[in-house]
Design goal:
Elements (H helix, E strand, L loop, with lengths): L24 E7 L8 H12 L4 E7 L11 H12 L18 H6 L18 E4 L5 E5 L8 H10 L5
Parallel strand pairs: 1-2
Antiparallel strand pairs: 1-3, 3-4
């Protein structure tokens, strides 16, 4: 079982069907609309635009566990992302990424170490997990790592599926 087999709903309702992304690189990011890091949405959209045709899917996962910075409804979150950042990448339902109600998607991600060796609980909004086309976690990046950082872009380049 890989992250592609874990059920999670789309922000708009119904299953997000992560299995459709099997064979592609997946950048999973817990997002929030009222955070100092919220402007990273723009960089995440740029990554989706830049690497989408080469097999990268950015997946935003709203979470309200960090200082209540994602309090909105599904419709409010969707509107905020589209109006303010032109987000076209998929967003899931709002979930817990830490604690006893941690979503199974994050249970499958958090054991991966970041570049500082941190494993376990997500530290804040906009922590990034890069999942390889085979479903293994290829890299983890701290919330403060910007989407346009060289380290993240290099990891994406190495993780993109090989053209057929």
């Amino acid at each position: 079982m890989t992250v592609f087999d874990i059920p999670i709903d789309a922000l708009s309702g119904g299953p997000a069907d992560l299995a459709q992304y099997r064979g592609q690189a997946l950048l999973v990011v817990n997002v929030a609309s009222r955070c100092g890091l919220t402007p990273q949405y723009a960089g995440l959209q740029t990554l989706a635009d830049t690497y989408g045709e080469r097999g990268l899917v950015v997946l935003g996962v709203p979470c309200n566990q960090f200082a209540g910075q994602e309090p909105g409804t599904a419709a409010e979150i969707s509107d905020f992302c589209q109006v303010n950042y032109g987000v076209t990448f998929p967003l899931t339902e709002k979930v817990d990424v830490n604690g006893p109600d941690r979503h199974p998607l994050y249970a499958a991600l958090v054991d991966a170490p970041d570049t500082d060796g941190h494993t376990g609980d997500v530290r804040w909004n906009f922590e990034k997990f890069l999942v390889a086309p085979d479903g293994r976690v290829a890299a983890r990046f701290a919330p403060t790592v910007e989407p346009d950082s060289e380290d993240l872009r290099t990891a994406i380049e190495k993780t993109l599926p090989t053209p057929a």
